[in-house]
Amino acid sequence: MEIKEGYFKQQQTKQQQTLKNSDTARKHQINHPSIFDSSLTPKTCPVIHGYPFVGVLPELLHNPLRLFQRAVKKHPGELVALKLGPIQAHLVTYPDHVQHVLNDNWQNFGKGEIMWKPIRQVMGKSLMTSQGESWFRSRRLMQPMFTAKQANALTELLVKIIASELARFEKVTDGGAIDMENEMALLTQNVILGVLFSSSIDRFRTETLAKALKVLVREVSRRVFLCVLPKQFSIPGERAFRNAIQTTDNTILTIIRARRQSGLNYGDLLERLLQARDEESKTGMNDQQLRDESITLFLAGNETTSTTLTWVWYLLDKHPEVEGKLRAEIDAVIGKRQPTCVDVAKLQYTKMVIQEAMRLYPPGWFLARVAQEDDVIDGYALKAGTTVLLCPYITHRLLKLWDRPEVFDPERFAPEHFTQRHSYSYFPFGGGPRYCIGKHLALLTTQLTVAMMVQKYRLRCVPGHPVEALPGITLRPRYGLRMTVEPV
């Protein structure tokens, strides 16, 4: 969803006033009447029960997408309750319902504690994990740094880093098959670290940090999906998890402290974070806050961008007519030279390809929220403490919303089609006041990478290699993506 100029500021003023009121006033504000015309008798959510005692928990852990697809097919347009052992979660996929949770009554749907505990262990009190007054301050502080204009100002730095990474990439493309998922993870990792820290991070620190962050992604993913298990169940990998957190802390805090002492302006994201000042208190971030926001920007940006790029290459190989149109646009706009900030706006079909890839394979394939107070969604009553699960992967493929939803068709995102869709039929970056702040930077990075790689290479899937979506923290190919690389 494209947020209109001034939208966040209006929401921020309104919600700040709410936070200053008494608990009674806050409660009244949070529980405003539903936008839906609900009858006096609440609707009853259909329930997917599963097995005795454990419910659908085994299927949720093994294949959540199949579980969600089955629930939606059986109960289209409804909230569906899923029995997860001793608790019950509600699957929310219909656009009006998603809008209620993410936008219309967003303040009543927090991120909760259980599922977010392992994420907070890594990201601390960052913009992504904080709530309430702490979140308002962080958003107020960081919002000006991540507008489309501010993202575009990083184009020159991004192009320089991507070009350097493609020089490295060229050395591994000797005609044999490579795992494109691994290559895109390495490429985006170095691009994002470069944009964050520029020359203040050397190769040794880059490799050290990369290894630690790889462990963190694996362990957080495991803990998020096992969070419903009773506390007496121990999760393996705890020592590796804590060691990786310590390594990350040491590396990033060392960079931050050295940067403060140097007094030099590197023109990167860390510099923007260092210079940011809250418009009310006029204060900036301390070292711990800088650490939390830096690691959040890296983890969120790296995983989503590399996964999106991986699916783009897969889909282009399967749809040569789309690849042909993409190449024609890139040839016409930039030819063989490096792209500039002015070129980005002209690469419209390139952006449409990326948007359609994110429709079919949204990296953030699910979102979890917890109702703070009793609520009503379209006549369905939800008790305080209820967990709701939103799944862009499912919403993006609903037959009622999309013509031929399983087909890869970038033309869906041509400008003339924007007004024909519900704004919450497509939400790969979330929505409402808590939409992903890095949206513009992520799209820009992906757009530039696609354009610069298409200039140089033609990527082909290895015949017979299985490709299946694996839901974890992001939606990745289960068996990687084996491809061959041909020079253009």
What this model shows, in words?
The protein has 488 residues and is α+β, with helices and mostly antiparallel strands. It has a domain at 31-123 and 365-427: Orthogonal Bundle (Cytochrome p450), CATH 1.10.630. The protein is 51% helix and 10% strand. The chain has 19 helices and 13 strands. A 6-stranded mixed β-sheet has the order 1-2-3-9-6-4. Strands 5-13-10 form a 3-stranded antiparallel β-sheet. Strands 7-8 form a two-stranded antiparallel ribbon. A hairpin with a 2-residue loop joins strand 7 (375-377) and strand 8. The radius of gyration is 23 Å and the shape is globular. The relative contact order is 0.16. The model is unreliable at 1-8 and 14-35 (pLDDT under 50).
Entry keywords:
Cytochrome p450, 488 residues, 51% helix, globular, six-stranded mixed beta sheet, alpha+beta, three-stranded antiparallel beta sheet
According to CATH, what is the class of the domain at 31-123 and 365-427?
Mainly Alpha
The shape, in one word, is globular
Number of helix segments? 19
How would a textbook summarize the main sheet? 6 strands, mixed
Order the strands across the largest sheet as they lie in space.
Answer: 1-2-3-9-6-4
Q: How far from one another are the termini?
A: 35 Å
Q: Name the CATH architecture of the domain at 31-123 and 365-427.
A: Orthogonal Bundle
Total strands = 13
Proportion of residues in β-strands? 5-15%
Helix content: 40-55%
Integer average pLDDT = 87
CATH fold assignment of the domain at 31-123 and 365-427: Cytochrome p450
Uncertain regions spanning at least 5 consecutive residues: 1-8, 14-35
**Rg on CA atoms, Å:** 23 Å
CATH superfamily of the domain at 31-123 and 365-427: Cytochrome P450
Structural class: alpha+beta
